[in-house]
Structures are given as structure tokens and as C-alpha cells.
Amino acid sequence: MKKFFRYAATIMILVAAFACQRENIPASSQDEVEVTFAINTESAIATKAAPAGTGIGYADTYEKELLFYVYKDGVLLDQLQPEIEDFQGADDLDAKVSVRLVKGQDYEFVFWAQAEGKSHYALTAQYPPYLTVNYDALAANDESRDAFYAVAKLHIEADMSIENITLTRPFAQINVGTTQDDIDAAKAAGVVIDNTSVTLSNAATRFDLFSGVASEGKEFTFKAAALPQQKLNVYNKADYPTAHEYSYLSMNYILVADAVTGEKDQLDAYKITFLQGTREINTISIPNVPVRRNWRTNIIGENVLTDYASFEITIDPDFYGEYNGGIEGNPFDELPYDQPTVEPEPEYIYLKPNSNWTQANARFAVYAFQDGKPEKWIDMVAASDSDGIYEFDKADIEGYTNIIFCRMNPGNANNDWNNKWNQTADLTVPTDGTNLYTVKEGTWDNGGGTWSTK
User: Fold this and answer.
1) 176, 363, 371, 454: least buried by Cβ within 10 Å?
2) How far apart are the C-alpha atoms of 389 and 239, rounded to whole Å?
């Protein structure tokens, strides 16, 4: 697998006007922890030609530089010296970033990857960080405008493992394609389309990285530029994952206002102009084009250049699932589509054992029971953001109304009553929004703990 990054550590040094916002590195006498991030780019950044089923079909030949920012209490830590290196030996991890931080503290992180040496985007690192997109004077069909980001918030602990970070696009990619027969017919009639320009409406120009909100929409035009030379592979619901090959007429990235898991957005107008050299041949306008962050919108026509254009629009999400729509002439006529599968955020139930229960390196488990259902044991693990608190996924006891928290023998991994040291009373799974059970201090068994909200 080709490595896309020529890695560069870019920590912004604020000008004097922002000097009051600067925070020094914590004193070395404090407990420090080295935190390592594995930057995952397997499906997010691989824009090169890809196997059927990935939904990716445009070759990115630009190496990326990685910008990395760390914040504490709303202040950019601009004196940190992270190590950023190529991650060798694992095809799905493209970078490794290590930085020393203070144990027991909360930090926020921004990762931004863009084509090296390009200035399409201005990233303002002052908290809260935001991105500004300047579409003025930009040419169409520019693959170097592809970029990726991620944000994270972590509570630093002594025994932290490598944190995996997946970068995704804040942009939608809009592609226009036609058949090779259409291009050949136009060529036979004396017209060779070799440049296109595109005018779009209500595309955002500002993106707040922590909130994920895109705003300040405007109409703009990508200036005429040469057509992409790769083939456009499109997938549809009828015969997925068979790839259907078309010739590119246009490929552009725009900032859209929706989130990946939200509803699709819509451009009020999309206008593409076909040129032979600098001479305009034809212009086609398509209203109500659906777009979505980190997805591709493919506008495919059978006879775009040589006859009245009839388009089918497919929104291709790369790796989130897929749905289809259609347009025939004007106006846009949406067909049924499959909504992407979105995994719900896990809902946890927590246990805070008392000082008695934490003795002897005890481990913890939960026992679930319900009339007419088989008994069920589930291991509990330490919560990632709270010292001394343990958790399990509530989905693991779906359909059960009663649980018992148990202090278990650490010398035996089996969960059964023979390996139980102590237990709470029979408890009802809360439905009132509470999720944290605290074992009463000084007790061992059935000690009258309480539910609260974590």
C-alpha cells in the first residue's frame, strides 16, 4: 500500500496578539505520560483506484502533510514537540504520533491532513479551531483539494494504550461522468471536450472542527480546467458491488453543512460548462443536487455531450453504506433509497466499587436475570475516562430487567457463583436516566448502594 503522508509536524506559533493565549509545557517534575496516536487512513484517505465495493475511484497522487494540535482548557499548547512518523508494518495504519502529556489531565486534539505545499485551506488554530475555504480563483478538477480531519478528547492515564484515530473528509465529492460512446460520438462530430468549469450554490466556506458545523454558504465557480484522466467507477443498488465505468467530465470537493450521520444536504443549483480549449461548447444546469459530507455524488449521463442530457444521480458514501436516487431531465425526481447503517452510540452502565471491593486486585462482573430467559454473565472493564469506575454495554443485557454486580476472584476468569467473592442485592436495570451504581462504603455484601448519573 502506498504511504500518502510525507509527515510534517506543524505546531502553530501564535503571533504576539495571541501571546496571552499561550500555555507553557507542564513542568517536568509532574507525572508525564507518552500518548501515541495511530492514524488510520485505510478507508478515509485512500482515494486512489480501489477494488469494487469501496466506492472510491479517483487517484490521489499528492502526498499529504499532517498537522497536529493539542489543547488544554481552551488553550493551544504551542510548545509541545510531538513525534510524527510513518507507521511501518501495518497496511491500515499510515502514521504514528507521540506526545508527552500530564497524567490525570484532559486534553483535546485536532488532526488535519492536506496536500503538501498547497494553500487551499486556512486552519486557524486559536481555540476553538476552524477551517476557512477560499474558493476564489480555484480551478475545477483539482485532486489536491482532498483533505481529511479528526478531533479527539482524552483523559490522560498512566496505562494508556495506543489511541486509534480515523481521519475522514469534511467535504462532499461531486463527480460528473458520461459514457465513452458519448465522448467518441462528440469527437466524430468535431468536438473534443477537454476542459470544464462548475458553478455551485450555497456551499459552506467555514468549518468549525470541534463542533463539526459548516457555515457561511455562498455561490462560487470553479474555473475551467482539464478533465480528470482516470475512469469514474460507480456502483448502484441493483447489482452492487459491480463497478460501472464512465469517463470523467468533472470532479470537485465542496464543504457541506450536514454531518455524516445526518440527513443529506442539497445544492440549489449545479451548473457545468463544457469547453474545447477555451471555447464554450455547452452548459447544463441541474437543480437540487443531493450532497453529503464524506460521500461522493455521482452525476452520470448517457448522452451528455451529443443529445438532450438525461442524468441519474447516485450518492456514494465510500464506506458508510449507500443509497440511490435519480434525475431525468428537470426537475429532480428522487427514487427510493436505502438509508446507510449507522451504529448507535453505546450506552453504558457503570459500577463504582468501594474500598473493600477493590482489595486483592478483584475483578468485576455483572449477572443478568429475567423470568423465562437464561442467566447471563458479563465481564466489566475499567471505564476509559474515570479512575475506579467500571462499565459494560447496556446492549449486552437487552431484554433483561434485573442485574447483580459481583466482585470476582481474579485468579479465575470464569464467571459463576463459585468464583464470586461479594455481590450487591438484586437490582432493577434503571430506566430513569441513572446509570452509575456506587457500592456503599464499608460494606461487603448487599450493602445498600445507590444509583446516580455519570
Assistant:
1) 371
2) 49
Q: Do the beta carbons of residue 165 and residue 177 sit within 8 Å?
A: no
Domains delineated in the chain: 16-166 (no CATH), 171-324 (2.60.40), 348-452 (2.60.40)
Query: Which string of DSSP letters, residue by residue, matches 168-198?
Result: B-SEEEEEEEE-HHHHHHHHHTT----EEEE
Asked if 8 and 65 touch (Cβ cutoff 8 Å), the reply is: yes
* Cross-strand pairs, 363: 408
Assessment of whether the complete model's pTM goes beyond 0.70: no
Contact predicate 176/249, CB 8 Å: yes
| C-alpha–C-alpha distance, residues 97 and 10, integer Å | 12
For residues 321 and 30, give the distance between their C-alpha atoms in angstroms, rounded to a whole number: 47
288 near 331, Cβ under 8 Å? yes
Measured between alpha carbons, how far is 438 from 350 in angstroms, rounded to an integer?
9
A 10 A CB-CB count for 62 gives: 17
| β-bridge partners, 171 | 255
Q: Tell me: the pLDDT tens digits for 311-350?
A: 555 544 443 333 333 333 333 333 233 334 445 578 899 9
Per-residue DSSP letter, 130: E
Pairing of strands 376-379, 420-423: unpaired
CA dist 453 and 437 (Å) reads 9
Q: Which three cell numbers stand for residue 358?
A: 477493590
Angle formed at CA 181 by CA 178 and CA 182, multiple of 5 degrees = 50
